[in-house]
Amino acid sequence: MNLSLGPLLYYWSRDDVLAFYDEAKRWPVARVYLGESVCSRRHLLRLPDWLALAEQLAAAGKEVVLSTQTLVESESDLKTLRRLVSDGRFLVEANEWGAVRLLSGAGAPFIAGSTLNVYNPETLGVLAELGARRWLPPVEMSRATLASLLEQVPDGMETEVFAYGRLPLAYSARCFTARHYNLPKDDCQFRCLDHPDGLALATREGEPFLTLNGIQTQSAGVYTLIGELPALRDLGVVSLRLSPQSRHMERVIDAFRAALAGEARAAEKLARVMPGPAVDGYWHGRAGLDHSAARLA
Amino acid sequence: MPLDLICPAGSLVSLKAAIDHGADAVYMGFRDNTNARAFPGLNFDETQAAEGLRYAHDRGRKVLLALNTYPQPDTWTRWTDAVDRAAKLGMDAVILADAGLMRYAVKQHPHLRLHLSVQGSATSYEAVNFYREHFGIQRAVLPRVLSLPQVENVVKHTDAEIELFGFGGLCVMVEGRCLLSSYCTGESPNSAGVCSPAKAVQWTDTPAGLESRLNGVLLDRYGKGEKAGYPTLCKGRFEVGGETYYAIEEPTSLNTLDLLPEMLKIGIAAIKIEGRQRSPAYVAQVTKVWRAAIDAVKKNADGFKPAPAWQAELNKLSEGQSHTLGAYHRPWK
After folding, report:
1. Which residue of A17, A93, B158, B305 has the fewest CB atoms within a 10 Å radius of its CB?
2. ipTM of the complex
């Protein structure tokens, strides 16, 4: 089992993004997902910039995957998608079915992202026939459901699981960050830049609940499967996706490396650098915001 | 036929109300989690479905069956059985979201008409055409996230018919891509066919006001004189940056009567009314207004203006008694 650095879901300054991936070159991750998968208005890095980064990371020995936009709305979104698919140098993660159409049409092997909603082996079979080599279950899928599905996993299909980070839960036409600032989406003034780990949403009694990230809504809780590595290994999962955060990403990766090496205190290491409370309810077939350790305590 | 009126049938009584008041077609679900309104007391068993079909077909109308949740591995045959039953009953179409289930339907029932559900999250013509090429879908229902010019661009680039939501509850998230409900309660539309399920709802009268909770999470608190609505997760009031407000969406409904001439011009095949969970009286009233409006726009698109009485009637029925054009009208975004 190895580690994957998921696509950056937030909007950071160009310098911060470049610095982040410069460091990523020496992090012990097998692969890096690159590209803007959340909002088409985010433009500080455009496709040629991502491709240049991809070259650098590949030269540093990483497997590079380009992630497509999850919500495709306009012709210009499709133009970007076509350019990304036709580049052909790197593997692509398809995050909606339009990308699947283009990738399979080009005869390119691809990664089936979690928003393709693969809930059963038949759908995974469809994707395998179209050229998917690796897939990610929906983030809400439990261990038990994943185990059932994997009993009929297509030959050669690799499974990657979202194992760390705030959960991407929903996508909208509306931008909730712009809404917070009373700005229209078309003139959002790129306020996401002020929130490198998203904008916290709490209930009226101050309980952290969700995180607003432009058109994407994430959990406030930080999903972590660091305590579930034996179960993940038993299932045949080949890679764990760690979702970027603005601070201490290297320490997150180190904690997972330590856990993979069987170190007992890895979870404690991780707890010190998490930007919010841990959650793992989805994995146990419960509400996503549940946390097993909290229940046992 | 452009601008068919597709109305919700949560029960046989609602189905008859919709047909009697002018629906061109109704959509229904079986009584389990194979559809995205898997609510207790709602939906059809096989006998009722057969009776509903007879009622509609006798009057020259159609019945569509929503099988639009994502089949789970252990219960896969529940979904395939439902497809088989739909074919046997003579449903005019099944509305599917899952690619694997589509493949099954095409193989087993090549003559069964397939519609792509809004839960399939297809927001571009590339996605719609994927389903059309691989499974021969005849129609796609678009998520409530595109502006009308974007919808028009989809219509121009696909042979599939396009159906739009016209009225009713407003999903602010891309349908099929929203897990807020399972994050809070363990059950989502995708996997359980419910959003913000009633069994997780709790109302408490407190000194600070009436509180609504979903699985213990405070969604809203209502002061004296404030009208409390059903606690749908995305329509609660939350705190962001020290402000308390409807951070995601106000409790408002979608109402696109004003856009009917444009929808006709673009070539929209059908308008869907949301609300299988609503009462037969609601279905009757909404169907009546929309029938009159669609007839009027077809007669004279250029001179079409929604009658004040229609809007007043629909406003009375709307959630929060207000309505929006949603994403079809760009400034809403």
Report:
1. B305
2. 0.97
* Domain A2-166+223-277 indexed as CATH 3.40.50.300: no
- CB atoms under 10 Å from CB of A100, counted, come to 27
Contact A173 B247 (CB under 8 A): no
Q: Is the dihedral of CA B166, B199, A278, A252 positive or negative?
A: negative
Q: Are residues B286 and B273 in contact, defined by beta-carbon separation less than 8 angstroms?
A: yes
The answer to whether residue B177 sits within a structural domain is: no
Residue ending a domain, among B200, B230, B245, is B245
The whole domain housing B287 covers 4-170+252-332
Neighbours of A4 (CB within 10 A): 26
Task: Tell me, yes or no, whether B15 and B114 share the same domain.
Answer: yes
The Cα angle at residue A200 between residues A194 and A202, in degrees rounded to 5: 155
Tokens 């309980």 belong to which residue? A207
A281 close to B (CB below 8 A): yes
Say what the pTM is: 0.96
Task: Note whether A277 contacts B: Cβ–Cβ < 8 A.
Answer: no
List per-residue pLDDT tens for chain B, 333 residues long.
Answer: 589 999 999 999 999 999 999 999 999 999 999 998 888 889 999 999 999 999 999 999 999 999 999 999 999 999 999 999 999 999 999 999 999 999 999 999 999 999 999 999 999 999 999 999 999 999 999 998 999 999 999 999 999 999 999 999 888 999 999 999 999 999 999 999 999 999 999 999 999 999 999 999 999 999 988 888 889 999 999 999 999 999 999 888 899 999 999 999 999 999 999 999 999 999 999 999 999 999 999 999 999 999 999 999 988 887 555 778 888 877 777
Shared domain check, B265 and B121 = yes
Chain B interface, mutation test: which of A82, A84, A146, A169, most B Cβ atoms within 10 Å?
A169
Task: Suggest the residue from A82, A204, A290 to mutate for an interface test with chain B (most B CBs closer than 10 A).
Answer: A204
Q: Tokens 């009126």 correspond to what residue? A: B5
B191 and A151: CB-CB below 8 Å? no
- Whether residues B179 and A167 touch (CB distance < 8 A) is answered with yes
Regarding whether B138 and B214 lie in a shared domain, the answer is no
**E strand or H helix at A231, and its extent?**
helix A229-235
Looking at the structure of chain B, the number of domains it has is 2
